[in-house]
TrEMBL record:
The lineage of its organism: Bacteria, Pseudomonadati, Verrucomicrobiota, Verrucomicrobiia, Verrucomicrobiales. Pfam families: Bac_rhamnosid6H, Bac_rhamnosid_C. Residues 188-376 form the Alpha-L-rhamnosidase six-hairpin glycosidase domain. Residues 515-572 form the Alpha-L-rhamnosidase C-terminal domain. This is Alpha-L-rhamnosidase. It comes from the Bacteria. Keywords: Signal. GO terms for biological process: carbohydrate metabolic process. The keyword Iron-sulfur does not apply. Residues 1-21 form the signal peptide. The keyword Nucleus does not apply. It comes from Luteolibacter yonseiensis.
Length: 575
């Protein structure tokens, strides 16, 4: 696997099974996992409780990954009441292995383990400022064997606190390591430019989504280890830009379809059933699998017909269920209607195109007529960026006017890590790449400035005032960037610090700065229209079913852009 730069220092080593057949009795009941394991060694000891902890730095030394009779260095000793916090250097999804040495008394002490996406999260009890065990246990007490290995997890974490939970016996640990599990797939797409901060953001967005490519495409690796259809859209855009085709996408689309009768909304949210349609068109354009699209026809047709019943005679959307765009606009009914009006129009127009591809003229005509009726209704403006961006993308309002009046107002404020992707897309549509680059650098880069190695469920630049970094204990007088903020379902430590919907800038940089966009199914034809904005140069690769497209764009002395493009066989560039 090609490791992206933010992971290089984490020192992964692959755990690979030998290439041989399983015994017949096992093969009958076993199914090969799509996931691969990588060992991650601890990088730092962040904190120790003082005299109750001995030799914690020995955990950072190389170890065999096997309990042995004689350890080469003294083990970590945690006395009753003592505790230590270690940092693995990067956010991962997986488990931890604890190795115990030989001791004369064969004691089996208990340890309390607290996983954390921040150091502060390892320091709190369940129920304190949102700390929880939802979806995956991150706070539990386990017994340790004599001379053995104990695996605890899975969860999403970067930090681990180990407390001696035994009132009488010392805890001795010869080795502690993390085990990352994810799909071992190559980073076919790449991005480099003259701004190193943007390069790091591209890498981090790609890795954020990669961590969520588990058995299914999750939204979060600590909390929200679930398939959420709307949240998938930015993730799928990133996967198309970085990995190309991956089975996790159709597997997740199909699973959600199969558990959701067409009389209900996916995930209980009306817009999420619309995102299912929009993702299918984007996925077909990227990969060109007509047979797979045909498998969706019955459900797709029924869903489009149901959606069409939620448009009144005046063209106003009347969707029921949970009416949702993103969390910051959730309680603003005007904003939600704005966004849903735009989404319904985009969905009907997408549905018309898909129905035409599938040879269904009746459904295509229904979608076209419904979209025309939707365009007759101009929703009231809330002044919020998320719905304004959708209206711009859908063509309800002139893009440059939306950018000037709403999107650029107050800089990168009123953004969410989810719908920030569509704000960026609307800025690109208005031709304002520099503002998009600045928003990415300030907003997503703001998370990196405070120690993030993945992008978060939500973020507000105002949170960073008087706040400390997430990779250190909170200093006196400083705000806790994790525990003191959040809203709705992600208050305090329930807040996920690795959320796939936050990876949008990766796809945006590949599609807009590198300028690569498929215009025929399977990327048989692509349009390459780079926009460097303030950048001096940019280069990278973009995956297609025929191989990677290679591009380099460089600003010349006269301000023009010189591009070098290498296309794989079977891919045609169109102007």
């Amino acid at each position: 696997m090609k490791l992206i730069p933010c992971l290089a220092a984490a020192a992964f080593s692959a755990a690979v099974l030998p290439c041989r057949a399983l015994p017949a009795a096992v093969a009958e009941v076993a199914e090969k996992s799509a996931l691969t394991s990588f060992v991650v060694r601890p990088k730092h000891v962040v904190w120790a409780s003082g005299a109750g902890v001995e030799d914690p730095e020995n955990l950072l030394k190389p170890h065999s990954g096997q309990a042995v009779l004689v350890e080469p260095v003294p083990p970590l000793v945690v006395k009753p009441g003592g505790a230590v916090v270690i940092d693995f250097g990067v956010e991962i999804v997986g488990s931890v292995d604890l190795f115990t040495p030989q001791t004369p008394g064969k004691d089996m002490p208990s340890v309390r383990l607290r996983f954390g996406e921040s150091v502060a999260e390892t320091m709190v009890d369940i129920g304190e400022r949102g700390a929880q065990n939802d979806h995956a246990l991150r706070d539990q007490v386990v017994k340790l064997p004599w001379l053995g290995k104990t695996t605890v997890g899975p969860s999403g974490f970067r930090f681990l606190r180990i407390d001696n939970a035994d009132p009488k016996t010392d805890v001795r640990l010869s080795q502690v390591r993390a085990v990352l599990t994810l799909r071992d797939v190559p980073y076919v797409g790449s991005f480099k430019c003259s701004d190193e901060r943007l390069n790091r953001i591209w890498d981090t967005g790609a890795y954020t989504v990669h961590l969520n490519m588990q058995d299914y495409l999750w939204d979060g690796i600590k909390r929200d280890r679930l398939v959420w259809l709307g949240d998938m859209h930015p993730e799928v855009s990133v996967i198309s830009s970085v990995f190309g085709y991956n089975e996790v996408v159709p597997k997740s689309l199909d699973m959600t379809r199969d558990v959701t009768p067409v009389t209900e909304w996916m995930n209980g949210i009306s817009s999420y059933s619309m995102w299912w349609i929009l993702i299918h068109e984007e996925w077909y354009l990227q990969n060109g699998n007509l047979d797979y699209l045909k498998q969706q026809q019955a459900y797709l047709t029924a869903l489009l017909k149901r959606l069409a019943t939620h448009v009144d005679a005046d063209g106003r959307e009347t969707l029921d269920g949970m009416r949702f765009l993103d969390w910051p606009t959730f309680e603003n009914k005007t904003a939600v209607h704005e966004g849903l009006q735009a989404m319904m129009t985009l969905t009907m127009e997408s549905g018309a195109r898909l129905a035409e591809i599938l040879g269904d003229r009746e459904t295509a005509e229904l979608c076209t007529e419904t979209a025309a009726r939707l365009r007759r209704h101009q929703p009231e403006s809330s002044g919020r960026k998320s719905p304004a961006a959708l209206l711009s993308i859908a063509g309800f309002r002139e893009p440059s006017e939306v950018s000037d009046a709403v999107l650029k107002k107050d800089g990168p404020r009123d953004l969410s890590t989810f719908y920030g992707f569509y704000v960026l897309n609307a800025l690109a549509k208005s031709g304002d790449i520099d503002t998009g680059l600045d928003f990415i650098s300030q907003y997503w880069g703001g998370m990196l400035d405070f120690g993030a190695t993945t992008f978060w469920e939500d973020f507000d630049l105002d949170w960073t005032k008087d706040a400390g970094p997430i990779d250190q204990p909170v200093a006196p007088g400083k705000k806790d960037l994790h525990g003191d903020f959040g809203a709705h379902c992600y208050v305090g430590f329930r807040h996920s610090f690795c959320h796939g919907w936050a990876g949008g800038p990766t796809a945006w940089l590949s599609r807009n700065v590198l300028g690569v966009a498929p215009v025929a199914p399977g990327c048989a034809k692509v349009r390459i229209t780079p926009d460097l904005g303030r950048l001096k140069w940019a280069e990278g690769t973009y995956p297609t079913p025929k191989g990677a497209i290679h591009v380099r764009h460089e600003r010349q002395a006269d301000g023009t852009i010189k591009s070098v493009v290498k296309l794989p066989d079977g891919v045609e560039e169109v102007k």
